[in-house]
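Input.
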Amino acid sequence: MTAAVRARADLRADLQHIADMIAPDTRVLDIGCGDGALLEYLVHAKRCDGRGVEISQAGVRACVSHGLSVIQGDADTDLQYYPDGAFDYVVLSQTLQATREPRAVLDHLVRIGRHAIVSITNLGYWRTRLSLFIQGRMPIVSAPGCRWYDNPNIHPCTSRDFLDLAREMRLTVERGLSIDRKGYAKSMTAIGRIANLGHEQGIFMLARASR
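Output.
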């Protein structure tokens, strides 16, 4: 058993669910790849041709130190330079809400990749709503240590919001997962008001609708 396969248990639950969506021996672009944990697993355990884009220098250095092909870049400004259909999968994990133009970024994802996998923190989760109701303060759901004024998530949304946007953009939701606090997943391609309360994160695999 290789070190990368052993490290599978160390992946965050959402990253493991994303990895499970990706077929072996495919081309993957991980945007906002952080320290490269997902990318490293895909490269070594699934033999993917994995590339990454990360905005922070510290993240790029961490990735390069592990032998990963990662460049410094910004999802809001740099995706336009990638050609159509350059990758089989494009991953954007917990990053869409930190972009200035989420719709434009999403449009680039489905242009660059045959499949786009996007994970978000669901602001409609009942614990998040209850925290706002009781404490009267903006909840910090995916950036511990931040306050409302320095939180990188400038476009927080719920899973219902995201699916509404996907429908508005006429994107095909090929697969959807709702992730609870313990990391367990349930299938989800459409969601109602009650279901929106019950999960902390959503993961969606999207594609352009066939013409």
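The first helix runs from residue 3 to 6.
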